[in-house]
Model the fold of this input.
Amino acid sequence: MSPFVLYLFFGFSSAYAVLVPTAPGPGDSFAAGSTCLIKWNADPTDSWAKFSIDLMSGSNDAMRLVTNVASGVDGTDSSLSPYNWTCPQVSPYSSIYFYQFNNSGNSTDRQWTTRFAIASSSGESTPPENPTQPNGDPIPWGSGQLVS
Done:
């Protein structure tokens, strides 16, 4: 095989390497103060050898950081998923939260989970304040924050 063909093969295969979030999913709810579960399918290359996980809220066009969950996670190590952490106290308790995975090797390479609920410690939550995205997509959202 020529060096050019090898370059094309490895170049294209690494361009498509991606870490894939698999949980939480739609309808999932976690009580504040209890364990929040995050899962992903590991990247079989070194493209996601180091990534961070952020808890986010907001619309698809104006995502807002709520808090950093983890940094320096090896996305090629399948034994690290699922990842558990303690769900924070937030406001509002609603299904407006999602995780953003940030590839430390490529600052523009990001992946997201779907929205899920963080509920009160007794399991209560309110509907998202916005039933659709600003562009009309039927994805409910709202703006959340940590409670001090």
Q: What stands out?
A: Confidence is low (pLDDT under 50) at residues 1-14. The first strand starts at residue 20 and ends at 23. The helical segments are 3-15.
